[in-house]
Amino acid sequence: MKRSFVASAVAAVLVLALTGCVESGRGDRSRALGPALDCPVAPNDGVTGAVRIGYQNIANGDLIVKDTGLLETCLPEAKITWSKFDSGATVIQAFGAGSLDLGLLGSAAAARAISAPLNLDVRAIWIHDVIGPAESLIVKDPAITTVAGLRGKKIAVPFASTSHYSLLAALHAAGIEHDVTLVNLQPDAILAAWKDSGVDAAFIWDPTLGELRRGGHVVNSAADTAAAGAPTFDLEGARSDFVAANPAFLTVWTAVQNWAVHQLISDPQGAATHVAAQLGTDVDAARRQLAGYTYPDAATQAGPAYLGGQLGADLRSTAQFLLGQGQIQGLAAPRRYHDAVYAQAAATVGGAR
Q1: Contact assessment for residue 82 and residue 23, using Cβ atoms and an 8 Å cutoff
Q2: Which of 10-24, 201-215, 242-256 has the lowest mean pLDDT?
Q3: Which helix (H) or strand (E) holds 17?
Q4: Sign of the torsion formed by the C-alpha atoms of 238, 130, 133 and 156
Q5: Residues 84, 134: contact at Cβ < 8 Å?
Q6: Tens of pLDDT along 214-245?
Q7: Cα distances (Å, whole numbers) of residue 325 to 10, 259, 333
Q8: All structural domains of the chain
Q9: How confident is the model at residue 276, as a pLDDT?
Q10: Cα first-last separation, the chain
Q11: What is the bridge-based pairing of β-strands 122-131 and 233-239?
Q12: Who has the most CB within 10 Å: 38, 110, 234, 325?
């Protein structure tokens, strides 16, 4: 039985990794703000070869880096390919298929990747954001004002995402985790199911969340589940062999991401303009989305609360919860979750400021 399950999972990985993303090269940088920006650190022309990066349409510094083209400016001899993914589930499928070097995924997806049956050799190299109200449980029926009121209802969520983890935590706290029907849908499909009355509620992120707000109301969020002891993050994951072989790339990549975080803090309007260009929305909408997250810089991430200490424990506690909910088959060794965190680049960049 186990062997059959793993074989099916591998087949699914190969199919979905090939079909679950859209690739883009150097040429899609926004030109709305004029000429390309200068690299915020010394460019490194010693980094060569191809690097495959997965991104998602989530409002954080990764979209700023992509929009400005700064990574390409800082690494002029590298061949950077950006591929768009819809959720962390498709990112871990691409890691499993060997078709991605690094990519954005949520902490729940990272915990799932490390755990059985996937047991992927991946590492968390950066925290793009700490998730707050940007991921929320939204309900259609105005009479339902609490999570407990969803008993007997259908709730849409992308499985293996941070929203899935937050939803499970909220349902567990309300005592109704066995009394609802969860529907595994990607963000675009959630919007269609909502319009077709196929679901009663959804736990999802922007921009889909913003669309659903027009006909629904929020009863819980990732900020609420974090306050109850279940924090979630958007991380950058990378294959361990890529991390070991490319420390120079990772230092520059981290420096550029750190620059983007400081743009979010010091120039929120300019940062929102880049994010809006990538999301295809207006700047005000982008600013509203950005307000739903917290963005730690490299110095903060290198400290004990994040990459420098607590993140490994958070990944393990996430995996323990997922195991209790039947979402994974087993835990990895306790040390594996701590070893899956790579803090060296953040410490180097954070210490340089």
Answers
A1: yes
A2: 10-24
A3: helix 2-19
A4: positive
A5: no
A6: 999 999 999 999 999 899 999 999 999 999 99
A7: 23, 39, 19
A8: 2-130+232-351 (3.40.190.10), 135-227 (3.40.190.10)
A9: 96
A10: 53
A11: antiparallel
A12: 110
